[in-house]
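Suppose you are handed a protein chain with no further information: no name, no annotation, nothing but its sequence. What can you learn? This example shows the usual starting point.
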Amino acid sequence: MTVTGSVKVGSLPRDVRLGPDGKLFFVTNEGRAGVSVIDPEQMKEINFIKTGAGAHAIEFSRDLTQMYVLNRSVGTVSVIDLATQTVVATWQEGRSPDEMTLSVDVTQAWFSDRYHGGVPVMGTRTAATLPTIPTGAPPQGLTPWPHPGPHPPRSNRT
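A reasonable first move is to predict its three-dimensional structure. Written in structure tokens, the prediction is:
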């Protein structure tokens, strides 16, 4: 449990995710408005993907071909192709997306709206804005239930 290395990525790093292939780290950076791509062997930034002001959180598509980056300050979501590390679409969420999760059937993206007290919903195929789920207090995180993937059988304990 000791630090073996570090890398500077600029101001306001927020979210760190290991890429699906286990070879790279992705770090959102609010201050630089994008994502640092880090080679963990060299502890070096090897690419920077410009997304938008307030780059805050990362979520991966279930098929692990895309990465979604929430740009909280401008209310957008950048869709990044992981193979090319390029932005292929920008969704206009319009509020302040803080965290994101995908519905179990992957047809909807749900966002915790840190400053407006609701969960905005978008269609993942068309980026169409769907009705917001009211929450009252501003939510800060989300999780779908049931979680996607295989589930162990439940025991019949009494």
